[in-house]
Automatic annotation (TrEMBL):
Family label: Belongs to the DEAD box helicase family.
Record protein name field: DEAD/DEAH box helicase
PANTHER family linked to this entry: ATP-DEPENDENT RNA HELICASE DBPA, ATP-DEPENDENT RNA HELICASE RHLE-RELATED
PROSITE patterns, per database record: HELICASE_ATP_BIND_1, HELICASE_CTER
Helicase C-terminal domain location: 218-365
Transmembrane segments: none
Segments of skewed composition (Low complexity): 374-405
Known EC number: 3.6.4.-
Position of the signal peptide: none
Domain Helicase ATP-binding, first and last residues per copy: 25-194
InterPro entries assigned to the protein according to its UniProt record, in alphabetical order: DEAD/DEAH_box_helicase_dom, DEAD/DEAH_RhlB, DEAD_box_RNA_helicase, Helicase_ATP-bd, Helicase_C-like, P-loop_NTPase
Compositionally biased region (Basic residues): 408-428
Length: 428
């Protein structure tokens, strides 16, 4: 490691390189194309960042381009690398979508050595002639399994076409992609695959719990979990529509939450993430793309509002907790059918039934639910009555009286009344 980096490394509390940091250091420094596979939370940003910063020359223009699938990950990566770049007199600039493009153009005129950005905005600037990549040495595709899917693949290819033909490329992720076997076809390169996932054990003790509930009570579970002591969670949704619906319900309940939505302005998203990091809110509602790669220190839990459809999604979601040796929970809400599907989807995880007992998460069923006839969903506290979850009780139906059609009830009553009043007419 370069001497200017050592003080920063020690100050951050690092004592030794992780497996991925050690494995890719020399290949990246010697201009090799690399595929780096390592668990989430194993320090991939510094794994590619430090050896590449050592290669750069201050004042020689844009030399390193790092591509991220989301604005939040791009800014996070920029913030991690900035102190190290400053130590060697270089600048790192973040260029993301939904941000002020005029300001970004002004920043590019200062010729930073490192750019971290989202592919869509970078392609836009390159097509406009504002972003010139003729001095580029290396392109890093972070969270590559996500970025090499449509439309990211075409955007990454467009940027490589604007770079020198011999540009070095690095692809990093926690999960493999079929595209890694087709890099020659799409980019005309061969890459050395470095996979330390089976050897790296930097993740802490994480419990994978499945809470049985129906659709009507999922929000109530969120509210109950949010009121646990010292609890915070990243809540993942499979689509934006469900996220927005749940956010509308939580808005009327006593839950401190924020939303990280692709439809919001960059400042709104940055404020939501900052509020969560400062523990001003308990739940941060996200989709897979918005939550990809986020580094949240000692995050207690990840909640899957619904089970994901892809194994890669579950792996990346789970990787937000238990980082750098900390413990955590991955909690999935759903019914028995969802539980069976999830266990088939990710058999590598020991997924257990989860319960909420006396304000604690546990895998031990309450005594009231020991009998098979009692559904596990009743382990949740009684749901509060809200406009969106409560139903007005139906009035009880009046009991019907059976009356024979040939003997009307009212006829007998009339005859009795006439007799009592002495008005009964004689027969005939």
């Amino acid at each position: 490691m370069a001497e200017p980096f050592q003080a920063l490394w020690t100050a951050a509390g690092f004592t030794a390189q992780t497996l991925i940091q050690e494995a890719v250091y020399q290949p990246l420094k010697t201009d090799q194309n690399v595929i780096g596979l390592a668990p989430t939370g194993s320090g991939k940003t510094l794994a590619f960042g430090l050896p590449l910063l050592e290669k750069l020359v201050p004042g020689d223009g844009i030399q390193l381009l790092i591509l991220s699938p989301s604005q939040e990950l791009a800014i996070q990566t920029r913030n991690v690398l900035q102190p190290y770049a400053k130590a060697v007199n270089m600048r790192v600039t973040g260029v993301t979508g939904n941000a002020n493009v005029k300001r970004q153009k002004e920043q590019l005129k200062q010729h930073p050595e490192v750019i971290v950005g989202t592919a869509g905005r970078l392609v836009e600037l390159a097509n406009a002639g504002t972003l010139k990549l003729h001095t580029l040495q290396t392109i890093i595709v972070d969270e590559a399994d996500e970025l090499l899917r449509d439309p990211g693949l075409d955007q990454v290819r467009a940027l490589t076409m604007a770079a020198p033909a011999d540009v070095q490329m690095g692809f990093f992720s926690a999960t493999a992609s079929p595209m890694f076997d087709q890099l020659d076809q799409w980019f005309g390169i061969d890459a050395t695959r470095i996979d330390v996932r089976a050897l790296d054990h930097t993740q802490g003790a994480v419990q994978h719990l499945f809470v049985q509930t129906d659709n009507a009570h999922r929000v109530e579970w969120l509210r109950s979990l949010a009121h646990l002591d010292h609890f915070q969670a990243l809540v993942f949704f499979n689509n934006n529509g469900t996220l927005e619906k749940v956010a509308g319900i939580l808005h009327h309940q006593a839950v401190k939450f924020a939303v990280l939505s692709r439809n919001d302005r960059s400042t709104t998203r940055a404020n939501a993430l900052a509020a969560f990091r400062k523990h001003k809110v308990t739940l941060l509602l996200v989709t897979d793309l918005a939550g990809r790669g986020l580094d949240l220190k000692k995050l207690p839990a990840v909640i899957n509002y619904a089970a994901p459809k892809r194994a890669e999604a579950y792996i990346h979601r789970a990787g937000r907790t238990g980082r750098m040796g900390a413990s955590g929970y991955v909690i999935t809400l759903g019914d028995d059918h969802d539980r069976r599907d999830l266990k088939k989807l990710v058999p590598q995880y020991a997924i257990q039934r989860g319960y909420l007992v006396d304000g604690q998460l546990t895998t031990v069923a309450p005594k009231a639910e020991a009998a098979p006839a009692v559904p596990a969903a009743s382990a949740a506290p009684a749901p509060a009555k809200t406009p969106t979850t409560s139903a007005r009780p139906k009035p009880k139906a009046k009991a019907a009286t059976a009356v024979a059609p040939d003997k009307p009830k009212h006829k007998k009553k009339r005859l009795r009344d006439q007799k009592n009043k002495g008005k009964r007419k004689p027969r005939g």
